[in-house]
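Annex B. Sample input.
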Amino acid sequence: MAPTLRYHDGVFYMLNANFSDKGNYIVTATNPAGPWSEPHWLEDVPGIDASLFIDNDGQAYVMGTGDVWDNGAGKMERGIWLAKYDLANFRMAGEPFTIFNSAMRVASAPEAPHLYHVGEYYYLMIAEGGTEHYHSVVVARSKELFAFYEANPANPVMTHRHMGFKAPILNVGHADLVELQDGSWYAVMLASRLIDGECKNLGRETFICPVAWERGWPLFSPETGKVEWEYDAPESLPWTEYPAEETFDDFDSEKLNMYWTFWGTPYEKFYGIQNSKLSLRCIRQALADDMQPMGFGKELRKNQFVAFLARRQRQMDTTITCQMTFTPQDTESAGLAVVQAMNHQYHLERAVEDGKQVVRLVLTTAEYDRPPYFPGFSSVTNKEVVASAAWDQPEIILQIKMEHEKFTVNYGESKETLRELCVADGRKINPEKVGCMCGTMLGVFATGNGTDSEKQAEFDWFEMV
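Annex B, continued. Sample output.
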């Protein structure tokens, strides 16, 4: 869910959750670059978005969300709880105490709590409104740690929901605070960039704004009250430039760069790098297998991964290109994939179609009426061949050029001789219903589409610009 990073007495503590396993956990490190410890599972910490607070005297506290607030009418509503925590033994040292419900009456999804001790007050900051358009940041305070906190009369202290559905930055919320050595304050938060007035291909990204303190409350982005595209850098910090990520991978190293991402833990070795080529095996699992309901208590399985290596889309205009060697048989396919959430994908692949060798673009979408973590979830997966052309050579150059929501699909013998297969509509894999939790993943894949195969697709290089 939502990770929290805290530092105390030479140790970094990261809280996160994996509800496909044992729920909330803490990992530790003395260097944020790692190595990190194995998870300390917090089986006595309920709810989502657990967060850690360490007071000035060194005492630790843990907080989270749950149906913990009694509305006085016989119903427990969503709220925030706090408990003393034994940091040395990774266990709760007291009973949860309800400290807040929401700034807005019966607000959706009060979550992501963080506590700060500033002056004579403890400040509680949470997100509410849900992670989509009505997302927001709200603040409450108390002079006592275990008390019901007083809401800021100016809440929400940050949101863009009042700016309508066409604002260039949307879904602002879920913030954390940091104080610099010179006493200045900043907030980091999640938000999404809007593309062509309706799509959020890039998912949630991290934004920052300055924070001032006024009459005992934090004031986000003073003067404008909204997240701006840029701010003056603080003079108290050294100017540090980081090298740009590489755009071209020729797989000369046997170790993948850190920006490559697996989809699911690769319990089985389906990939390898040899002779400066990345190989992916056509395993049974497919990128667009039917979605399954989520829930606690389900049997853990170690086959929930696919032969897909990807990078995150970082810019609205992005082109991915690869050189692949692959001759498919039967149900096998391999190539480039543009993967958005909830089974919304484009595959530019080599495959067998009606007994003939082809290169084709396949669109996958899904129909559903609720998220997979809601009771009663079911879905229908739809696949459509958008365009297809004959191709019987083992080697091929594949390219998808994304200009906002215009996807130009090319293929050929070389980069210099590419021909257009089709122009696809990016909006079809970025409808409002997929949400903005995760951004688009761009990469290479191979699959047997339900049948295990020893056949491998070889990728000589991959480029993302």
